[in-house]
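step=encode ok
step=design start
structure_in=
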């Protein structure tokens, strides 16, 4: 409008200036202006936005319970088992020694210097539940958040993403050190911890079994494992009698990776919403009509787990920042001396060539580019766990940082004790004809990435 008005007035110079301004605006909208002009003031805003998301996501990952203390404390009453009868709870209580024994970790950076000095001198009482409560007040137990009343008494307990997907570097003592976010806690005995709960009626009602059966199932999981599908299909054991629980996967190295879990349920934000609502017991909204299929997911369909709604949502608004932080977590590099570099170089050639590994584990993400799932038959394995997912397939697992989650074995259920067992499986499956040296070289390469 302004340009047309100037032209009608006959002001040629003014009209040219207006046209130039309008053209510049159009070029800017089309992204054709030089970057220095177009992005002036925008780069700083983008960086600030990214930094804000990172900080928020880190806080959510480490410390946000999504309101799940209503489940862990209010329903299961786990806080009572932690404090013990002497402090107003039930049973003997959970001492720091017990907590460390079931795989819980302590963030040394959250400990005051006086506490560190006492622990280093052997003066801290690691056999007293009161010491555990003191650690909770310091927010030092990784992934566990205590809620205290005005008198300092533990009134509830909640868990965060970090309880399963963080560990520590043991730099202060075994189980005590600096956080390693994204690393799976393969020492964590989730089942044993839940089994301490005084009230398991949530699970008895959901699964239609008694409390003793629930505890038997929970104790069958063992360290480093969790069964996310138990609350969906009620299948506690594999056909051969082994536990149906799967290994806790790493949450690092996920940038560029399509599907997030062994069975490929969905993307990172999908799985975060799934876990926060259905597994952690957080307060939020969740929708997945696939869980209405009573033939595949009888427990979920009966409980309406595919249609969770709350008047307040403590989960959904936090998913963007949480995803951003998770995608920022790089896979750890193999430490010097942990592999033979010469053999690894030969192994890389095999990985890309004769062994055909890179046909699915494509560098640099080391998973399929695109839809990263395969049928059980195509990888010569049983379909039990795949059939517990929505489409009966297995995701191609990203391979970076393999050494950091070697404890507990490989594959979804840890069936292969080491990388050589994995290589032997695929050598047989695909009739690769690898020699012993080629297998060894391939293992060294896998250890190096």
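sequence_out=
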């Amino acid at each position: 409008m302004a340009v047309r008005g100037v032209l009608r007035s006959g002001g040629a110079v003014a009209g040219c200036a207006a046209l130039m301004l309008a053209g510049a605006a159009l070029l800017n909208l089309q992204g054709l202006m030089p970057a220095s002009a177009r992005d002036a003031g925008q780069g700083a805003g983008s960086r600030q936005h990214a930094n804000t998301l990172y900080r928020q996501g880190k806080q959510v990952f480490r410390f946000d319970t999504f309101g799940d203390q209503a489940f862990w404390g209010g329903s299961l009453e786990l806080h009572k088992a932690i404090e013990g009868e002497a402090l107003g709870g039930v049973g003997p209580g959970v001492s720091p020694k017990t907590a460390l024994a079931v795989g819980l970790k302590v963030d040394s950076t959250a400990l005051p210097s006086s506490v560190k000095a006492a622990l280093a001198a052997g003066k801290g009482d690691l056999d007293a539940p009161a010491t555990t409560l003191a650690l909770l007040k310091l927010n030092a137990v990784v992934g566990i958040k205590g809620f205290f009343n005005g008198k300092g008494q533990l009134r509830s307990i909640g868990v965060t993403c970090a309880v399963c997907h963080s560990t520590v570097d043991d730099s202060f003592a075994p189980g005590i050190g600096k956080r390693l976010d994204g690393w799976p806690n393969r020492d964590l005995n989730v089942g044993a911890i839940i089994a301490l709960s005084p009230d398991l009626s949530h699970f008895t009602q959901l699964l239609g079994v008694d409390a003793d059966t629930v505890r038997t199932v929970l104790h069958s999981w063992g360290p480093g494992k969790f069964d996310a599908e138990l609350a969906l299909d009620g299948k506690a054991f594999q056909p051969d009698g082994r536990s149906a629980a799967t290994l806790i996967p790493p949450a690092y190295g996920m940038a560029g990776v399509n599907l997030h879990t062994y069975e490929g349920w969905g993307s990172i934000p999908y799985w975060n919403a799934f876990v926060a609502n259905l597994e952690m017991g957080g307060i939020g909204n969740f929708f997945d009509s696939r869980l209405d299929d009573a033939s595949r997911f009888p427990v979920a369909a009966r409980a309406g787990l595919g249609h969770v709604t709350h008047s307040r949502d403590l989960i959904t608004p936090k998913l963007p920042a949480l995803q951003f932080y998770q995608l920022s977590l790089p896979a750890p590099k193999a430490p010097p001396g942990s592999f033979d570099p010469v053999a690894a170089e030969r192994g890389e050639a095999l990985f890309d060539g004769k062994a055909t590994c890179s046909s699915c584990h494509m560098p640099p993400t080391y998973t399929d580019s695109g839809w990263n799932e395969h049928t059980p038959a195509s990888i010569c394995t049983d379909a039990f766990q795949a059939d517990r997912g929505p489409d009966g397939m297995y995701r191609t697992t990203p391979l970076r940082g393999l050494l950091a989650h070697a404890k507990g074995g490989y594959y979804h259920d840890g069936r292969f004790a080491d990388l050589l067992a994995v290589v032997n499986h695929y050598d047989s499956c695909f009739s690769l004809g690898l020699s012993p040296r080629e297998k060894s070289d391939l293992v060294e390469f896998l250890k190096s990435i």
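step=design ok
step=annotate ok -> The domain at 341-448 is CATH 1.10.760.10 (Cytochrome Bc1 Complex; Chain D, domain 2).
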